[in-house]
Amino acid sequence: MEPWGRLVVLAVAITAVVSSPLANKLQPGKEWPTRNSVQQPQDVWLQLQTSTTDASDLSTTELPPEEQTDAAIEAIEVTTEENNVILRTSDSENDPLEAVVPTEESNDILVKSLEESEKVDYSGAQVWKVPTSSSKVRSLLGNLRSRNMISPWGGNHSYIDLLVKPEAINNVSQELRKQSVPFDVIIVDLQKRIDEENPPLDENEIELQDRQGHRMTWKQYHRLTDIHGFMDYLAKTYPRIVSVNTIGKSFLGRDLKVLRISDGKPTNKAVFIDGGIHAREWISPATVTFFINQFAENFDEESDDVKNIDWYFLPVVNPDGYEYTHQVDRLWRKNRRPAGTRQCLGTDLNRNFGHHWGGKGSSGNPCSDIYRGSKAFSEPESKAVSDFILNSAAEFKAYLTYHSYGQYLLYPWGYDDAVPPDYKDLDIVGKEIAQEIQRVGGSKYTVGSSSGVLYPASGGSDDWAKAQGIKYSYTIELSDTGRYGFILPTSFIEPVAKESLAGLRVLARKLNEA
Questions:
Q1: What are the tens digits of pLDDT across the range 452-511?
Q2: CA 490 to CA 192: how far, in whole Å?
Q3: Which of 53, 187, 263, 425 could form a disulfide with 127 if both were Cys (CB 3.0 to 4.6 A apart)?
C-alpha cells in the first residue's frame, strides 16, 4: 500500500449571519427564528486523506442477519466503490465528523476532492420488476445482493424493482429462472434513459428565462444555483409576502434555503414542505418549486384557504447529494458526508431523524444506501431541519415531505407496523388528497401508513415531525409507478406538479376547517 496523501485543512468558526429585515412586517411572535438560534457545526481540524488501497480490500461486509428482514427488502443494496476518500478528525471519541463545516476556502478543496470523479456510466444496466411474496425469493435476492449483482430501486410488500448490472444480467436471469421466479424488464438500457431524461431547453425557452428574471421553467430539471436564484428572485419581487432565510449549511457548505410565503396574519396556521431529501429523486424539488411559483405569483388570486397559511418550503434538503447526481452519479441517494470508511460516503437523511432512530429498515453499514448515520441527527442537513422546526415561532399543523417514486401517500408510523392514535384522521385527509390528485391528473395514489403500505423504515422525517405534535405529517411518493422510476422525463414535471398542487389545496382546506 502506498503512503497516504495528506492535506490538513482548518475549518474556522462560522460567523453568525444576520438576516436582512423582512419586507412584510409580521405580528409579534410570528417572525422567523433568528439565524443563530439554529445550531451550527463548530470548528474542527480536518485531515483529507486519499487512499490507494486495492479495491478488493474495500468490499462491503454482509449486513447483519437482523437487517436481512423481509420488512427491509430495501436493504438489498449494492456497494458504491467509486470513491476512495476518507475524512478524519484528530482525537475525537464519538462522531469525529459531526462538527465539520468547511470554510469558503476549504470548501473548494473538499468539493474538488469529493465531487470531481469520473461520471458513472450505466450503459447496459437494466431495471427489473420481481415479485417478492415468498421467503425463498427474498433469500435469493439477498444472496444476489451480497454478490454485488443487483441494487434495489423501489417496491413494497409485493414486489421490488431491481437495478441489474450489465455484466450480471445473464447470471441473475439464470438464477431467477432456475427458481421459477418471474420478472419483467422495465428499463432495457438505463444509461440511454438517463441521457434522454433532461434534454437542453430550446431557444424559445431560453429566451423566456432571460425575460422572466430567473431560470426556472419546469420543462427541465434545474441545478441548485437555478433553484436558489429563483427563490431569491421571488423574495425581491414580492417582498410583501415572500422571504428567504438560510437555516443551515450542508456538509460541503451549501445553503439550506427556506422560502416562506405569508401575508403575516397572526391567525395563520403554518405548513412545512420539503423535497430532495434523497438526491436522485429529481421530480421532488421540481414539484416543490412549482408550488412556490404558483403561490407567490398568484397569491392575490388564491383562495382564503391558501392565504390563511404561512407556507415554509425547503426544496432541496440534500444539496450536496443533489449536485452530485447532476455531476457524477445520477442514482446517488444519500448526502455526501464521509461515513468513516475508505470508499463509502453518505448517510440516508431519511433514516437520520430522531424518532426511533436506528431501528427496522435502516442500516449500520456505512456502505448501505439506507445507512442511518452514527447517531440521530448526526448530519448537518437533518439537524438544521430539526433545529429550525423546533426553534420556529410558527405553529406547524402539517409537514409534507415529497419523494419519488411509486405514487403513495403515506402517514406514520414508519418505524414499525403501527399507527398513531389519530391515524383515522390522517387516513381520511390522505384519501381526500389522493382523490383530488386522481380527479385532476389521473394518477392513482395508495394511501396508508408507511410501514403498512411499504415496509418499516425507522428514522424518517415524517415520523419525527409527527412525534413533535405536527398532526398532518405525510410522505408523498410522486410518480411514476416504475416505468421510468427515478429517471422521470421532463415532460412529466408539469403534470405531476399540477395534480400534486391540487392535492395540496385539499390539505389547505382541511386545515382551515379544523
A1: 999 899 999 999 999 999 999 999 999 999 999 999 999 999 999 999 999 999 999 999
A2: 15
A3: 187
CA dihedral 345, 407, 497, 250 (to 10 degrees): -20
pLDDT for 30 equals: 43
Element (DSSP H or E) covering residue 153: strand 150-155
Give 34-62 pLDDT, tens digit per residue: 433 333 322 222 222 222 223 222 233 33
Choose the catalytic residue: 281, 379, 436, 477: 477
- Other beta carbons within 10 angstroms of residue 90's beta carbon come to 10
Q: Residue holding cell 438517463?
A: 194
Q: How far apart are the first and last CA of the chain?
A: 65
CA–CA separation, 148 and 130 (whole Å): 17
Cα–Cα dist 13/284, whole Å? 33
Residue 379 annotated as catalytic = no
421, containing H or E segment = none
Q: What is the maximum alpha-carbon separation in the chain? A: 69
Whole-angstrom Cα distance, residue 496 to residue 484?
A: 14
Helix or strand holding residue 351 (H, E): none
Backbone angles phi, psi at 474, to 5 degrees: -135, 145
What Cα–Cα distance (Å) separates residue 35 from each residue in 151, 243, 291? Answer: 40, 14, 25
**Cβ(45)–Cβ(108) below 8 Å:** no
With a cut of 80, say whether residue 389 has pLDDT above it: yes
Please state whether beta strands 269-275 and 396-404 pair in parallel, antiparallel, or not at all (unpaired): parallel
Residue 214: which region, alpha, beta or left (left: phi > 0; alpha: psi -120 to 50)? beta
Which amino acid, residue 111?
V
Would you call the peptide bond into 128 cis, given omega within 30 degrees of 0 as the criterion?
no
Residue 136 pLDDT greater than 60, yes or no: yes
Domains and their CATH numbers in the chain: 126-197 (3.30.70.340), 220-330+394-513 (3.40.630.10)
What is the torsion angle, in degrees rounded to the nearest 10, for the CA atoms of residue 415, residue 418, residue 419 and residue 420?
A: -80
Q: How wide is the angle at C-alpha 284 spanned by C-alphas 281 and 288, nearest 5°?
A: 160
* pLDDT tens-place string over residues 277-317: 999 999 999 999 999 999 999 999 999 999 999 999 999 99
Order of strands across the sheet that contains 85-88: 5-11, 44-50, 85-88
